[in-house]
Amino acid sequence: MSGTPAGNPPVRPRAGRPPVRLLAAATGVALTAATLAGCAPPDRAGGGSSGTLRIAASTDAGESLNPYASNQSPTQELRSALLYEGLTHLSPTGRLEWRLATEMTPNADLTVWTIKLRPGVTFSDGSDFTSADVVASIKYLRDPEHAVQGLALIEMIDPDEVEAVDRLTVRVGLSRPFGPFKDVWANVFLPMTKAGTAPAKPIGTGPFAVRSFTAGRQSSLKRFDGYWGAKPKLEAVEIIEYQSQQAQANALLSDQVDVASGATPAIAKSLGGKDGVELLDSKGDFTLRIGLNTTVAPFDDVRVRQALRLLIDRREVVSNAFGGYARVASDHEAGTPQCPAPDVPQRQQDIGQAKKLLAEAGQSDLSFSIATDGLLPGMQEMAQVFSENAAKAGVKVDVNVITPQEFLSKWGKWPVYVDFNTLPYLPYVITSLLPRRVANATHWDDREFGRLAEELFAAPESRQCPIMNRMHKIEYEQGPMITPAFVNVLLPYRSRVRGLVTDVSGRPLSFLSNVTVGK
To answer: Are 332 and 428 in contact (CB under 8 A)?
Structure first.
């Protein structure tokens, strides 16, 4: 479940996923849920405004403007990305870049980091962004009582050792060495807000500010003319909420919106090229995968896990579950632009070897169910392809489609389930591959992997790649996930919209500075 960070106290979400599964859905921008319920959007006249981008998103009746909320939907994450900023961020190509910080320097043993802040930044209310705001934001995020989604990423911070050195410098003390300090601040759940404004009336430094907001219906954002960075060409952004992906598609075709932020492959294919609709296809590292609970027999046996990985036809998953909008994967998460994943053999379907491993494990007549709420496009379809593949080896697999509420109520207890990940590798390890994390619903606990993770966190950037490669290989050989494909994020839009960019993290609507809307 990684969309969102874990390790915080479990909180029952409103809809979608536990706190750790919402980062979701393509960092809150692209793949949205057809099952989320809420109020219908108000009637709107068709026709685009030259300076306003109208985005269709999934309904979230329980959303708020608080970027630190413990249970955020993709719609809330989309809005937050336009209102708030972090100390660093990921570019559309996945590169780490400076944002509100311009420099982070550690001491010799990586236990104290000094953060230099960008000068000349103001909040949307016109007040200056200073070290006092960073100290207040970090202390709020670090407080377990607030149950923020990013807590696991910064749990090594000692809240008593966060201090303002001067107006644009912050010193942060840690409880243990931590090398990837710069990386974690790019997480969407770790933004900076004006001191004293969160959670009730948070104020950010982003390129847009709130004009009006009605939970479950519509958000109206206006351009912040005092923004420090590249100012948006758009005058405004309207986020209009719909109850299904098909309703979003219908709104796009009827010219009620300019962009539909969620699209199944089938919907995307039906929309592309029709009535002035084009398709933005972001090829990245978003994964849908099947999780195997390693505390439940027989999935505690690595032979069974490897056998199940050998049953799935990855090319069939790409073509049938994702309509060709994906590429095959090999049961480990992607690397980073700075550190590509290791060159391990592409795992292929091998029914004979799978049957041999199952026989060795005494599981030749294995049968089980896969639980899925079908929240994201391709989830149910991928499980069905796996079920059909498994039958070739005499393994009976039922696909159990349930409501999000039922799925969440038993999170961490399902023997086999469908999950997703949008996080870069380092945050993913922290939130989802280490024991006793809320996101680790497989309960996988590999000692060598954990040892390497500790080594990775204590290593300077120059030494991280070889360690990550060894960790990838352990995932490939011992891991708890069947990861058959990296899935594209699809964004249908009206052809009058110009300047959209693809994003490897699946959040193209976070990058609107050059977007315009014609007549």
So the answer is: no
